[in-house]
Amino acid sequence: MNKAANPALPSTLNNVELLSQPITLPNGQVIKNRLAKSAMSEALATIDNRPTPLLDKLYKRWSAGGTGLLITGNIMVDRKALGEPNNVALENDRDMAALKRWVEAGSANNTQLWVQLNHPGKQVPKGLNSRALGPSAVPFDKKMQSFFETPQELAEDEIKDIIKRFATSAALAEEAGFSGAQIHGAHGYLVSQFLSPHHNRREDQWGGSLENRMRFVKEIYSAIREKTGSDFAVSIKMNSADFQKGGFTEEESLTVMKELSGLGIDLIEVSGGTYEAPAMSGAERYKSKAKESTLKREAYFLSFAEKVRGEISVPLMVTGGFRSQQGMADALRTGAMDLVGLARPLALNPEFSANVLTEGEVESPVKQIKTGIKMIDDMGMMDVAWYARQIKRLAQGKSINLRENPLLALIKIMASNGIQIVRNRRVRA
Ligand SMILES: Cc1cc2nc3c(=O)[nH]c(=O)nc-3n(C[C@H](O)[C@H](O)[C@H](O)COP(=O)(O)O)c2cc1C
Q1: Using a 6 Å cutoff on CB, does residue 344 contact ligand 1?
Q2: How do residues 368-377 score in pLDDT, each as one tens digit?
């Protein structure tokens, strides 16, 4: 980390002054304040995965809303490997003009705009892609098997192709004017599947020891660096842990972060969990394992960030749970993190950051969305489904609907996804 550019934040600053401090990343990029929008999948692309004017409208609202860094929802590196219908896919220069319009909207007001790049691996709704792929053919938890199928094991040449695709997508994003790329290495998607000894049972150079399991992410990182300029930010979102039996642990996560820090990564965002164990959205059963001192703080993963900060100096963003100006300022004052990651608060109010940076006590009304049906509520999908509907309303210029019934919202989304999955297959045929 460029320590000279980021001296410790003075303890005399009040909350607003503290959160308004700019930060310089190792690549020299300046983020104008300490608030960052974490990736939220918009699912606003066309059925053949092209960016639409709805994305421009949405990001115009977010870049006008005071947040220093905006990270897009996950953009797929392969159209044949979507995470949801209507994801944007970035494979070639087909959509350069639309991408440039998106950049213009999202980087207004001196806002940094990065793409998040993803490959879902096995974590993909049944029937969406012609094949579900993973490091190994490990089935999902029983209760998830009606939604997700057991993947086929990736062949070596397919692994190499995916690595190349991440680099190609990053280079295209840079050409369009995005100022950075984030590798989605969290929440149970392909990069995190490779890291996890539960999902990755390979016995070749891509599996087994942690050194082998992290080869995939290290190669993706190096391939992106090779294809992009030195002022382009490269970041990763990583799990503190998977919260799964036999999964990726905090100790392993720390080791991977140290490696990526040694390679020169510009920012690490800390999250946690998967759809099988949705710690990222603050499900109570993961929180209850946390220490009392952690519960008093808003952030779900701050204790882990404190451990990371003791070992590496790369800028850290912590995401999950931030709701109040005081909670954000207190977390920054611990010195364990540099950027506050916000997702759902910005889905409910695109100006939330501006309010945090100007007003006194500000608190987001974000709540966990529950249907009352345990099987559904135990998965991470309900929150994503309900908040995604609010994001669509923002893009359409409508006001959000805090009272939207969770079960009805879920039924509507599942019906719409079902239709889109069929349409998607036709488009591909
Ligand atoms: C609608 C929605 C879509 C999301 N999509 C993504 C995504 O594409 N990539 C990602 O890394 N995280 C995604 N997340 C997780 C958020 O980035 C974040 O980690 C999580 O919501 C916790 O932060 P919060 O408490 O501020 O909402 C999504 C969350 C929501 C609500």
Answers
A1: yes
A2: 888 888 777 7
